[in-house]
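ok trying again, last paste got cut off:
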Amino acid sequence: MKKLIRFFVCLAFTMALAPTAWAQSGEEDHGATVEKMNAYVGFMNRAIRASDSLSRYESWVNMKKGPTGKERIIYGLYAPYDVRTEIAAAEEATGAEPKMPELDAAMTRFITVYKELAPVLEKASKYYDRSDYKSDKMQGGKEFHAQIVKFADEFSKARTEADTLLAKEKRQIDLQELAGLEKAEGKKSRWQVRNIMIKAQAVMETLPSGGETKVDLGAYDSSLKDYAEAVKVFDDYATEHPGSFHVFESSPATLLSKLRDFQEKLQKSKGDARKAANDLEWIYNDYNMMVSTSQSATMFSKD
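nice, full thing came through this time. structure:
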């Protein structure tokens, strides 16, 4: 099953935490926490490109044997994004207050292996873009493969570990921020978007990652119920306050529909996500798009 990775709002994770809400909620150390988490989120979101590159490579290469040049289609790899700025910020954050020992250590491990793998992916991407494998009979491809295999498993494990711990820390911060928004503004447009993203993220965390294939149906059903209730509240608010959510407005319901279709298939397969792998890919795509559009969802809101 294809490896799928969710974006974080800061953690839908790219919607930055709102310092004003924290200040109004009376949290004195909110600024340092927000800055640290946003540094981690910024790096993790941009680093997804390297994961996508590996997935593309694995889609056409036998990872045990390596490329031969005789494959039916040679797709190459995606070039990773330039994340020098994000890495610098994340590295600084690992030593910054407040200390988050487990997460700080996990981020350090992920950054380390990322810096080993990303240059290899970059060079390999250009090698395939130039079709050099046609002139050297895939010799360069075999050499790159050895380097990719050397770091790929460690990279994936480090990514999963950092994702999990980041989500754990983020969940606590999200709930505090949601309470801060309600106290400062009431359950208006910004609260509605944040509430939706928190509930959506909870559903996404029940989906399989890495090499997992099974879904805990109890956890999935429970989180989906909470998300469905949040969508109804969101839709009612949107009806009562037209134009509050820009292009984001239809996204929560669209994702909910896909999640319910997926739920039906999971029930039939007793939680085996492989039976609905295509659905899962669309769910991740929709969720990641929600993360992106949530950042500007309330830019034209008048509430």
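cool. Confidence is low (pLDDT under 50) at residues 11-26. The chain has two domains: 1-186, 187-303.
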